[in-house]
Structure prediction request, 359 residues.
Amino acid sequence: MKPIILLLLIACLKSAAQTVVPFNSARWKITGQEAVQEEYQGKQCLKLTNGRAVLQDAAFKNGIIEFDIAVTQARYFPGMGFRTQDENNTEEFYLRPHQSGNPDALQYYPEYNGDGAWQLYYGDGFNNPHKILFDRWMHVKLLVKDTAAEIYLDNETTPALFIKKLYRPVAAGMIMLENVWLVAARYADFTYTATDNVTLANKPQPYPPLQPGTVTTWQVSTAFDEATIVDKPLLSAVNTRSLGWQTLPTDGRGVADLSKLAGTKQGANTVFAKLVVESDKVQVKKLSFGFSDRVRVYCNGKLLYSGEDVFQSRDYRFLGTIGYWDAVYLDLKKGKNEVWIAVSEDYGGWGVMAKLEDL
Prediction:
């Protein structure tokens, strides 16, 4: 074998080698209310409560991440981030131990600017039922390839969750083990392999075509305090003249994740999502829409609708997920009409979707 070919082969094998990183390694940045190393059920592990363990130099884009996790039967959400750019921007996977066996026992979502948007990313490709066993070790294996990923649990041969689309940009980043809750989770036997040589059992499929009239681009304002438009049936220049605007496309489902532009903070939890409707005559058109968490819908400056879609607002199991749950009828004038939807966020996803339907 020629020396150059041999060196290339050795380099490829080295780049695809599995890397074991014990939790006493200086490569980890570990923080938390409780972050201690101990022995649990025969394994040396990291007991983590209200904290994170971040492998800052992982430079992980594609490859395999494996670890064991032990959880209790409590309401909390231990998991991991990958391709992590910082603590507020990551691809996130976690368990819901208290929902073991239910459709949302497992969860994936992309996190932008610190908004954990599980209410926007729900259903096929984001959640799956799985029986989570408690007070014992469970093996987690994550396979990541470009814009898709698979989660395997307990060495099963079938993925427990097929993530059809990873929403954040394909970019190398840190790996983060995360349990920011007051119930302990334990992690052990962490390894990762950074490689493009990954084969997924499933093939990503494109989303079906959007329904006619679906809004695919919004003009989104800078954030402001929701209190400034409470009990305001008419918009005026006082409410809007200081706003800046950005263009935000929707995803393949027609959902606009507003946290891509900015995260919420006190005094800045609301934006306007603006749609211009050109009408060739005076007419009425139905606008179906979805949102999270609260909206006020204005047409040509007049308030038509105010509502909320927060966690448990419909029944005790309602997660506040986004969907076409509501509609208004727009009284359009001939020419240019402006629909302004004020979307306010508490937690769980800051988003809007809409479709304009012919009558």
